Amino acid sequence: MAVQTAATTQRENAGSLTLYRFTFTSVADGDTFDSGLSTNVWGFLIEQTGNPSTQASAGISAANASGIFTLYPGENSLGATLFVFART
User: How many whole angstroms separate alpha carbon 7 and alpha carbon 22?
Assistant: First the structure.
C-alpha cells in the first residue's frame, strides 16, 4: 500500500460539474490517492489500463472517502485511469 501521485491530470467542464481525469502508470492493492476534491465528489469511475489478459486477475475498483480514493486492482502493477465528477 502506497500513496499514489497521478502521472497526468486533465480537467474538463461538464455543465454544472467538472470532470477530472487522473492517470496512474501503476497501482497496487490498497494504494490511496488524495484528489484534493474533499466532499465535492459527485461520482466516479475507474478503469484499468494495460493488458489484463496476461494477469491472473482482471478488473479494478475504488472506494471514495471525502475525496481520498483507495484503489483495489485485481492485479498489481497495471495502470489505471480515475474519472471523477465534482462540484468545484
Answer: 7
Torsion, Cα 10 36 77 58, to 10 degrees, reads -80
pLDDT, one tens digit per residue, over 26-78 is 999 999 999 999 999 999 999 988 776 666 677 899 999 999 999 999 877 78
- Model pTM? 0.88
SS3 40: helix
* Residue partners of 23: CB distance under 8 A and separation at least 6: 6, 7, 8, 9, 49, 79, 80, 81, 82
The answer to whether 85 touches 19, Cβ cutoff 8 Å, is: yes
β-partners of residue 82 are: 22, 46
Amino acid identity at 37:
L
